[in-house]
Amino acid sequence: MQVQPLRWTGDSLELLDQRRLPREVIWVTCHTPREVEAAIRDMVVRGAPAIGVSAAFGLALAAMRGEDVKEAAELLRAARPTAVNLAWAIDRMLQRAAESGSSAAALQREAIAIMDEDLEGNRRLGRYGAELLGRSTTVLTHCNAGALATAGYGTALGVIRAAVESGRKIAVFADETRPYLQGARLTAWELQQEGIDVTLITDNMAGHFFQQGKFDAVIVGADRIAANGDTANKIGTYTVAVLAGAHGVPFYVAAPFSTVDLRCPDGSAIPIEERSAAEVTQMFGMPIAPEGIAVRHPAFDVTPARLITAIITDRGVIKPPFEEGLRAASRS
Amino acid sequence: MQVQPLRWTGDSLELLDQRRLPREVIWVTCHTPREVEAAIRDMVVRGAPAIGVSAAFGLALAAMRGEDVKEAAELLRAARPTAVNLAWAIDRMLQRAAESGSSAAALQREAIAIMDEDLEGNRRLGRYGAELLGRSTTVLTHCNAGALATAGYGTALGVIRAAVESGRKIAVFADETRPYLQGARLTAWELQQEGIDVTLITDNMAGHFFQQGKFDAVIVGADRIAANGDTANKIGTYTVAVLAGAHGVPFYVAAPFSTVDLRCPDGSAIPIEERSAAEVTQMFGMPIAPEGIAVRHPAFDVTPARLITAIITDRGVIKPPFEEGLRAASRS
User: Which helix (H) or strand (E) holds A20?
Assistant: First the structure.
């Protein structure tokens, strides 16, 4: 089965409700930019590239409904702060709107192009990344940087898919990734659908398996890559990077080049979204912690460039020093 | 409120059902060694010292019912493999049984002595540990090494309590500790009951807050401390220790001396319990992962001595080299 988190029907955007996977496969239909914004904010759709593509269709919908595209753009831009792909896709759509006088047909074509380029880019970065892996490799991944996080195929899981397609023997360990359990619910489900060898662990087990020499590589996605290579990704990624460094295991970031934000000098300039306490203290609406307890819930963290072995993009594999490599790739 | 996980009624052992906290406060009554064994295995009671005390009462119950004490001892010993306090308490009870001809009165007195000594020992180690903390300190802890894990007062949380009692300003961050959520359900609840400042985070957030310089110290409990200082504790402890080491934050283990196993040369000789997949893939009986997914569930990991700053025991604070210090303390 080919996993995809979104489909464009010509007059609406259908989103696979990722909050309900793997128990239920339910599609949510968005007819307006406001519905797309709510779906991004509430995490019906998540994953940096996927929310970029969704926002692009949100602006196409605005133009098709005769709504103010700029207004819709500012609404969508504020839906989630950390992933730069959202702003990138919106800026690209705004430019097209300016060029075309907000032509509905032009904006629809542009959104479809963004979607198609993402899918194509992931296949390309997957092939580049697969070359970094041995013939028989066990990979740890965190969160879901899969088909479900993109227009399809995935970034970190795109590398896994390409490695499997190239005949490598790949085993994947998936961190469950609290609090949203993207690893348990999405990565495990997505890889299981395709018969790829996957083992689920809780986040706090990763260290134990590093200690036992279980992992040959770590591959994660990214929500924003600063000019110096510092990378924001799902909360817990930094911990995995420290563990990889302490055990001499290569740590790879896989992302389309639209995730690179050259205007952001380093990780300290990346805004980190703080989400609600209830997402930590409740499961299926039931409390798993005492009422009134204080909670912190940063949804992302920043892995410093020094802990990253290479950044796998659709423009090639970039190795340190990242600043130089990222600037060169941006001109390619 | 004084939190205690067990009470002896004179003819039964009552255990606070820790699987149901903090939603429900329910006591389970055990009249037989088999009932105590099931309660330990199923984690009605957990925490290395608490299961040792519970097993001691299980043997008192055996003697009171005229059952074979040695047979009951072997049943109880197999309930959980990693915590050495279980074997330690059983061996102590067996020696008393041998000396007293399995006198029910003698065994009941011995079990009460084990319980009282644990509580008293925790208060002592708490005072020793508190001296290691500054006037204003933020401590990260993992799992629950609190009153609920012992006969009362706690080990890691005993140090916190003693520090608060000594007038220090202490803030605690509690890892939720998947999959059983001892941090979210037990540590958060226990500290909240006493008005101690506690903030709940998911396990994978710890790295982010280390990176931000949030923590002045880490204090955790232990299930078994080998002769060289290697320490088995709840899964995830090793990850926290690596993070503490990488950020120059002191990492303290707090445990009664009954947790030290001098016959165990190092961590590689400690048996690590692997528990069921369902404990990882279900919450409130509902699936949080796709059906049939492969899972690993080591319930403990081993932190090597080199990552431990000091071991806080009821016989004093032991610093490296641990082998020497532990052997000296064992003779004191």
Answer: none
In the predicted model, what is the mean pLDDT of chain B? 97
Q: How far apart (Å, rounded) are the C-alpha atoms in residues B112 and B118?
A: 10
In the set B42, B68, B91, B223, the catalytic residue is B223
Q: pLDDT for A168-193, tens place per residue?
A: 999 999 999 999 999 999 999 999 99
CA atoms within 13 A on the CB side of B332: 12
Distance CA B218, CA A182 (A): 28
Nearest CA in chain B to A172: B294
Report whether A255 contacts A149 (CB < 8 A).
Answer: no
Nearest to A235 among B208, B242, B298 (CB): B208
B205/A298 CB distance under 8 A: yes
In total, the C-beta contacts within 8 angstroms joining chain A to chain B are 189
B223 in active site: yes
C-beta atoms of B198 and A280 within 8 A: no
Give φ, ψ of A120 to 5 degrees: -65, -45
Instruction: State the Cα–Cα distance between residues B51 and B97, nearest whole angstrom.
Output: 19
Strands (E) located in chain B: 6-8, 13-16, 27-30, 136-141, 169-175, 197-201, 217-220, 224-226, 231-234, 251-254, 260-261, 282-283, 286-287, 294-295, 300-303, 310-313, 316-318
pTM exceeding the 0.90 threshold for the entire prediction: yes
φ and ψ of B137, to 5 deg = -140, 135
